[in-house]
Design a protein that fits this description.
Number of strands: 13
Low-confidence stretches: none
Distance between the termini: 22 Å
Mean pLDDT: 94
Shape: globular
Structural class: alpha/beta
Radius of gyration: 21 Å
Order of helices and strands: EEEHEEHEHEHHEEEEHEHHHHE
Strand order of the largest sheet: 11-9-4-13-12
Number of helices: 10
């Protein structure tokens, strides 16, 4: 029977709902990493469930890291938009130097992956866990009016944007990979659809542009509804070269353990040594995480960690947000293609 099975976390009561069509619109999986702009519920559950139901996943190695997430001890994750830099704010290192012109001619307005790696390099060089965003040079707009949400958050942290430096650092932001769909949001499983960040339509390529998420939600969400209303339950054509992979079995992994490993070995910069070591660790993790909310979330993260690590280790090049220090150049001859995975 097609549909979903649910558990009420307050009472533990289980319920099943039959449905002709199921749409996965559960967002991304930023909680794979110890530093993320995503909310606590972004544990990739919809993507993992779709995989276990037979849906193909694609482009799992491509995770976008935003360069300017608020970073201070005890503070919640919060995105400081690049629009602030667009109005004239500059990134400063521990010595107070505006460092981005040394990395890219576009300076503070370079692409997200370039800025994130530059921030990481400056943090490592100084042995600190953040750089600073300086908004004091912004003169053409009132920052409190132009960025009311950001201004209010910073004020709550004791920071006045027009006067004080904002501590920022890179963080996992957007999953460019996900459930492989066609342009109607169909997966290769009849009646199963996906849209939004959980889906991988291909529109982001290897290096997402910020506003493409509107297309993922508004355009593809509408197309999913239109296809369901048509009454057709046909599926997308399966990928001819999908790679079969079997979920691991072993001891349950703690979420913090997964996050620490993924940030270290599958974060902004990757190497074969780190990826292979992480894969060996991930292979010991169980596909079931226990009861309650944390159990399924832990299982989803363990599964997606294994899949992302596998895809990243196989792609022996650097492309977009996927940066391999041991393969720093793009290799179009071998790797100008997608990687698709299915349950083996």
């Amino acid at each position: 029977t097609a549909g979903i099975a649910t558990v009420d976390l307050r009472t533990g009561a289980a319920a099943a709902f039959a449905a002709d069509a199921v749409v996965v619109a559960s967002g991304g999986a930023g909680q794979l990493f110890s530093h993320t702009t995503n909310p606590a519920v972004a544990t990739g559950d919809g993507i993992a469930l779709a995989f276990l139901a037979g849906a193909e996943l694609m482009d799992l190695e491509f995770y976008q890291f935003h360069p300017t997430a608020f970073r201070a001890a005890g503070a919640p994750p919060f995105l400081i938009s690049e629009a602030v830099r667009g109005e004239g704010a500059q990134l400063l290192n521990a010595a107070g130097e505006a460092f981005m012109p040394r990395y890219d001619v576009r300076g503070d307005l370079a692409p997200r992956d370039v800025v994130a790696r530059a921030c990481l390099a400056e943090m490592r060089a100084a042995g600190v866990d953040a750089v600073a965003l300086d908004c004091r040079a912004i003169r053409k707009v009132d920052v409190a009016v132009r960025f009311p949400g950001i201004y209010a958050f910073c004020l709550g942290q004791g920071i006045q944007m027009e006067r004080d430096l904002i501590p920022v650092a890179p963080a996992a932001h957007y999953f460019m990979g996900g459930i492989r769909t066609d342009t109607w949001g169909r997966t290769n499983v009849p009646g199963l659809y996906a849209c939004g960040e959980a889906a991988c339509t291909g529109v982001h390529g290897a290096n997402r542009l910020a506003s493409n998420s509107l297309m993922e939600t508004v355009v593809f969400g509408k197309r999913v509804v239109e296809h369901i209303e048509s009454g057709s339950r046909d599926a997308a054509t399966p990928a001819a070269d999908a790679i079969a992979i079997v979920p691991p079995t072993g001891v349950p992994a703690a979420i913090a353990e997964i996050q620490t490993m993924m940030w270290r070995d599958a974060g902004i910069e990757r190497t074969a040594t780190g990826l292979r070591g992480a894969l060996a660790q991930a292979a010991t993790w169980a596909g079931a995480g226990g009861a309650g909310r944390e159990g399924p979330e832990r299982a989803s993260l363990a599964l997606l960690a294994r899949l992302l690590l596998t895809a990243a280790e196989r792609r022996t090049e650097s492309r977009g947000a996927h940066k391999r220090l041991d393969f720093p150049e793009r290799d179009d001859a071998r790797w100008r293609r997608h990687q698709v995975y299915r349950h083996g």
